[in-house]
Structure formats: C-alpha cells, structure tokens
Amino acid sequence: MRLWVPIIGPLILLVLLGGAPLWGQEDPEKSKAQEHEVPGAIGTTEVCPCTAGPLIADTAVPLEKGKFAVQPFFFFKFTGGLFSPSWRRISAGGDYFTFDTLLKLAYGLTQNLEVNLYLRYRHNWASNVDAPGPRGERSADFGGFGDVNFTLKYRLIEESQWCPTVAALFSVDFPTGHYFPLNPGRLGTDSTGSGVYASYLGFNVSKWVKPFIFYANLWYYTAITSANTQVPHPVVGGTRVKRIHGRDTWMLRLAAEYPLGGQGPWVALLEFYADWDTGRILGPKANSLSPGAAYLGIMPGLEYVYSDRLAFVGGVAVDVAGKNVVLEYTPILSLVYTF
Length: 339
Description:
Elements: H1 5-17, E1 68-83, E2 89-90, E3 95-108, E4 113-127, E5 140-145, E6 148-157, E7 165-174, E8 198-209, E9 212-223, E10 227-232, E11 239-244, E12 248-259, E13 266-278, E14 294-305, E15 310-323, E16 325-338
Antiparallel strand pairs: 1-2, 1-3, 1-16, 3-4, 4-5, 4-6, 6-7, 7-8, 8-9, 9-12, 10-11, 12-13, 13-14, 14-15, 15-16
C-alpha cells in the first residue's frame, strides 16, 4: 500500500483540476499550443516561432487538447572515464558504450493537462575491461528493455507579457528493465533498469523573450521502493542479497533556443543540466553502496523545423564536472511529429 499512496494522490488532484489553468485562463479556441510550439504571450500580437523544443530539458506548454505527438530519441553514450570523489577525472577501467532508444508518446488530455508515456530500449557494450569476469571475460554486451515512465504535466500559469508559463510535473518510473540478478560474466552490461519504483515532482517554466525562448526545470527524484543487490557475506563467505535504499536527487535543467533569421527554420539550441544526490526525505535512511554523486554538463544543439507538425533536433551532451559518477559524451538525435 505504501507504494501507491504517493502515486494516486497527485493523479487524482491533477485529474480533478482538469480543464483551466489556475491563473491566466484563456479561451480554448485561442490556445493552440503544441508540444513543439510555444504560443505568443497573452496581451501581445506576436507569435513565438515554432521549434522542436529542448532535448534534455522539458517544455512547460502542454499539447493542445486532443493532439497526439510521437518523439523518438536516440542516445549514443561514450564513456570517457569517471569523476572521483574529489571531482578529478580518472580511468573508467575499460571501454564502455551504450545505445539508448527512447520513445515518447504525448497526448493532450485536457486544455492544460498533458500525459506522457516513455518506452526505452538499451544495449550496453564493454571491452578491454581491467577487472575480468569469473572466466576471464574482458568484453561483453547485453540489450533489453529499460524502465517505463509515465508523466503528468499540468499548466498552472499561462504565459503573459511579463509572466512565464509554469507547469507542475509528476512522473513515475516502473522497474521494467533488467536489474537483478546480474551475471558477473557480462561485466555489468546486463543492467538495463534501476530496479525500483521512483517518482519525480517538480516544475517546468518557459518564456519567450524575443528572439530567445527560455526553459527551466527543477525536479526532485525519490525511489519509492528499495532494490536488491549482491554483497559479500561477512561470515560464511560468498555473497548475500541486500536491500538498498537509494538517495534522493535534485535535478536542474536549463535551455535556450534562438531561431536563426528570426523565424527559422534553423534553430540554435543550448542546454545545461545538473544532478546532485541528497539524503532521503521519506522512508528508511539511504544505505547505498556508493557515495553520493553529482554532475553537471552542457549540450549545444541544432534544430530544423520542417513544418508546424514535423521538426528535427540533434546535439552533443558533454559532462564537464562531477564526483562519484561516470563521465559521458552523448550525441543525441530526435524528431517530433504531431498529429
């Protein structure tokens, strides 16, 4: 029962709030916001240029009621090392690569409420590993489905000449990816999920300040359940199963778009991202086997808006600093199509 209490409450609240924003209500016929398009602010005659939207950050303007959008993402993650506890770059102990395919399905449920479903497939490769497996394995690979995510995004404040769009976000991860038990001979590549139900609570903000479009997200992640892991047995030798209660995490995302030539179709994109672990607010005390992590990075990108229904976007995310975390370079490609 503890699992569903933090999930059902926000779901019921958002559904009951339903149609109109809490502030800045607008006639539905005048609100033509799409997932990849920011409307002009109330009280102005100009219309914000259509864009694909950021890759890492999230938008604040929900899809128009009854609209449906499909957006696949392709992540090519190259491991460049590790960040030590003192924020220094050290060796990763091998060569690692991950290919992630993420499919986002978005639907405008009401005028101000958007629902999202994220489906993931992940394939990991490891080679030239310093610490071989039990049979001397130095390379391995494994692929499988990752965790499924369901998200609700509700617009609280509609953008006006001086006020940004503000949306509340509630999201849940379902542990559909493979996490436990892991095969030592696969060198960690068979981990494609987190092993826990987890929730995200936060706010998305966006504002068109001609000629730029700005985005900001602040989310709080917490694991609702604990996960199993294998640890050495202190008495009889071998290993035993231990329940791990992970740390909570603050997540910050910032982005800015600049339509080249004023109206595109090319749009310059720059994003900043940062995560940092904290103690747990609710439930058992964190007992993670690894120390708290933190990292930050930037992602320059470029968009091409083919039409108001179809747009393409690509970029390269670069982790620039961190501690107790993997250093990655990640080219990302995506397109969004709205029906």
